[in-house]
Write a structure and sequence with these properties.
The complex is a heterodimer of chains A (355) and B (335).
Chain A: E1 9-10, E2 17-32, E3 35-52, E4 56-60, H1 67-74, E5 82-87, E6 90-91, H2 97-105, E7 107-110, H3 114-117, H4 124-134, H5 140-153, H6 159-162, H7 172-184, E8 190-194, H8 202-219, E9 222-227, E10 239-244, E11 247-253, H9 254-259, H10 264-272, E12 324-327, E13 330-332, H11 339-344, H12 346-354
Parallel strand pairs in A: 1-3, 4-9, 4-10, 7-8, 8-9
Antiparallel strand pairs in A: 2-3, 2-5, 5-6, 10-11, 11-13, 12-13
Chain B: E1 7-20, E2 23-36, E3 40-44, H1 51-59, E4 66-75, E5 78-79, H2 85-92, E6 97-100, H3 114-126, H4 130-144, H5 160-172, E7 178-182, H6 190-206, E8 210-215, H7 218-221, E9 227-232, E10 235-241, H8 242-247, H9 252-259, E11 307-309, E12 313-315, H10 322-327
Parallel strand pairs in B: 3-8, 3-9, 6-7, 7-8
Antiparallel strand pairs in B: 1-2, 1-4, 4-5, 9-10, 10-12, 11-12
The chains are: A alpha/beta (355), B alpha/beta (335).
Chain lengths: 355, 335
């Protein structure tokens, strides 16, 4: 499952993929004084995965790990520096102009902050009408019919009361429903949800997650769910991958990753997330030292090694770790899971069992 | 049982209404709570329940449209509501009670260096000289884990976690009795969130400071809480110690709120609360939660008082009225 440069290749769809990310690199060029080359920000550095119709995958990572760049590239807003995105048999790197516009219309996007994502001077009707107008639905009646249908699905009723309202007249949960309706109004095959519930109150969060789940099932949608909050992932996706500093470091089925994480970074993420429990106040949590690295000069070899509690000098900072398949469909990008290392290094074995 | 710490802050029947064209908004409507030394009281509530207004009311940071503003706030044995604005500013604000505002990472002044910014409260409120203030700023920045060479940097050169730490240092530099934290970690990543929480646990132990933590995030609030107050529609509906609250909440709203939290380590399906919080312009008469409450009964049309349960827990719900529990055993709450 490894390609030649050690990046993780995640393929589980047996060629039936709706979306294929092939060794994707998204680098932003840094300019000095507005011109002159000063290096690259390697936001996405060699990511490969597939997604089949009707499947949900979660992408977890901290801010600055490249998940937004990945998402923007999938949406067709960024141009891949190297590698390619193939969606519905259209290759993004070979698409331009009118074709690119059509490519974009087949992917729905749910923004993080509903209030920021809705234009304050437009009525809900106008907001939902716009994508249809842009994509050539000229018949007013047809537009009305489609808007009414989607509002019914996101449960924003009574429709006639909602349509003439402005975004500020709705509650946070309702605003997010409008954002979802807008993403769904073109009947996309793929939905990219960027932290769809992080700005909402706890009491509404679950409602919105269930709505997304229902839409995914009824429309047989593929969904990419981007988040930094691991506790909501359990209710949403079949697969999950963890990103760190532009790379995928672990990929697994959702239950496998949450119940039996392998990579030290995934461990850290899980340990840092809390469930409501009074015992939390009594303990200090173990946090890896330091902060995520700059993507201009990422650390050599394993990018997590300067923060890793199980750092093995001479290995982790020298050789890029390949992916080890610890169990079927559970890939981890860490030397701790190299059978040779495990045989020679007793400590790593105890780590394996203990953490 | 240990002797409880002495009470630092006591709010009694605190009210803050805002004037609007459509009438008064009852953002804080008769709030009572206590804060003990070296402890943290968490105020949990949904957006729009008045929890940020409560912070403003305690610190008397009133917007121009503030209307009714009364009640008592006792800091040790002084009712600070009786002070005039000028002496409140000189003696209380930041000297004794300070605040880390919401989205503190974006609340720093973009054109001031971190060192100047953190020492400013000491100069303004403690009448320190520039040198002394810088010294105490350095000490406090060290305390919260900001490297000293950041002193000459600007806010945009710092990561979110470091900015949050600087904002915290700014609130602590005058060594106040009480620090109000308004959603201190909601904009941060999980790992940064956890390390800020670690930091605040340490601060609570090391400094003679008490915290009021205002948040909607129940899971993270449990990291710091000694006491929990649940706020709903401008009122506090439940107060009690954190341990018993997190194992067995009393008020039906607290139940619903706890059930709505997605769990990482358990597979319970979370439940959402139907309906929306009421408008604070015309809050419903009687119990304000009654329209969304699964346990509603005829008595709920009357405003419930605070009932005392298990000695020191308070809950604003008729289900805990002894007379009602006697007459209608089917309404006894089983957690």
């Amino acid at each position: 499952m490894n390609n030649d440069n050690g990046h993780m290749e995640i393929s589980h769809t047996n060629g039936q993929a709706l979306l294929q990310i092939k060794d994707l690199h998204v680098w932003y060029e840094l300019k000095r004084f507005g011109f002159g080359h000063a290096g690259y920000v390697r936001a996405v550095d060699g990511i490969t995965f597939d997604l089949a119709q009707g499947e949900a995958i979660a992408c977890v990572g901290e801010s600055g790990c490249g998940k937004s760049s990945l998402m923007k590239t999938i949406l067709g807003l960024n141009i891949p520096t190297k590698g390619d995105v193939v969606f519905d048999d259209t290759s993004l790197s070979a698409t331009k102009g009118e074709e690119l516009r059509q490519y974009r219309s087949k992917i729905g996007y749910i923004q993080q902050d509903p209030f920021g994502a809705l234009p304050p001077f437009m009525t809900i009707e106008r907001i939902l009408e716009e994508p249809l107008m842009i994509n050539g639905v000229t018949d007013k009646e047809e537009r009305r019919r489609r808007i009414a249908k989607i509002l019914e699905e996101v449960k924003l009723t009574p429709i006639n009361e909602v349509l003439p309202k402005y975004p500020h007249m709705l509650s946070g949960g309702q605003q997010q429903r409008v954002v979802i309706a807008r993403a769904m109004v073109m009947n996309p095959k793929l939905l990219v949800a960027d932290e769809p519930v992080s700005m909402l109150d706890a009491s509404v969060r679950v409602e919105i997650l269930r709505l997304l789940r229902k839409l995914q099932e009824s429309h047989n949608l593929a969904v990419i769910y981007i988040t930094h909050d691991l506790s909501t992932v359990r209710y949403f996706s079949e697969f999950i991958f963890v990103m760190y500093a532009g790379e995928v470091i672990e990929f697994a089925r959702m239950e496998d990753l949450l119940d039996d994480p392998k990579h030290p970074y995934t461990h850290a993420l899980l340990d840092a997330s809390s469930d409501p429990n009074a015992d939390n106040a009594l303990v200090y949590r173990e946090i890896p030292k330091g902060e995520p690295p700059s993507l201009v000069n990422p650390p050599p070899a394993c990018r997590f090694h300067p923060r890793c509690p199980h750092f093995m000098p001479g290995l982790c900072d020298v050789k890029d770790p390949p992916n080890f398949e610890v169990s079927p469909r559970h890939l981890v990008n860490c030397w701790l899971y190299d059978p040779e290392v495990q045989a020679t290094n007793l400590e790593s074995i105890s780590v394996n069992n203990a953490v | 049982m240990d002797q409880p710490n002495e009470t630092v802050l006591r709010a009694r029947n605190l009210r803050l209404y805002f004037q609007t064209r459509r009438g008064p908004v009852q953002a804080v409507d008769g709030v009572d709570f206590d804060l003990r030394k070296n402890e943290a009281t968490v105020i949990i509530g949904e957006s729009g329940c008045g929890k940020s207004s409560l912070a403003k009311a305690i610190l008397r940071l009133l917007p121009r449209n503030a209307g009714t503003y009364d009640g008592e706030v006792w800091l040790h044995d002084q009712n600070i509501m009786l002070l005039n604005d000028e002496s409140f500013r000189k003696e209380i604000r930041w000297r004794r009670i300070s605040m880390v505002p919401q989205a503190a990472m974006n609340a720093l002044n973009p054109v001031m260096r971190i060192g100047d910014q953190v020492s400013e409260p000491a100069i303004v409120h403690m009448n320190m000289t520039k040198e002394d203030a810088t010294k105490s700023a350095v000490r406090m920045l060290e305390h919260v884990g900001v490297p000293i060479d950041f002193l000459h940097r600007y806010a945009f050169e710092l990561s979110g976690g470091m900015r949050q730490r600087s904002a915290l240092a700014m609130a602590l530099v005058t060594l106040p009795d009480v620090v109000i934290l308004d959603e201190p970690t909601s904009a941060l990543d999980v790992l940064t969130q956890a390390s800020i929480m670690n930091l605040m646990k340490r601060m609570k132990k090391e400094l003679e400071t008490s915290f009021i933590l205002i948040t909607h995030d129940i899971a993270t609030s449990s990291e710091l809480a000694d006491n929990v107050a649940v706020m709903y529609a401008g009122q506090i509906v439940e107060v009690g110690d954190a341990r018993r609250f997190f194992t067995k909440p009393l008020h039906p709203y607290s139940h619903a709120l706890m059930a709505s939290v997605p769990r990482l380590r358990e597979t319970i399906e979370p439940e959402f609360i139907t309906g929306q919080p009421p408008s604070l312009l015309n809050p419903p008469t009687g119990c304000r939660f009654k329209d969304r409450c699964p346990k509603r009964f005829d008595k709920c049309d009357e405003a419930p008082p605070m009932f005392i349960e298990e000695g020191d827990r308070q809950v604003r719900c008729w289900l805990y009225d002894d007379a009602i529990q006697m007459s209608r055993p089917e309404y006894q709450v089983v957690a």
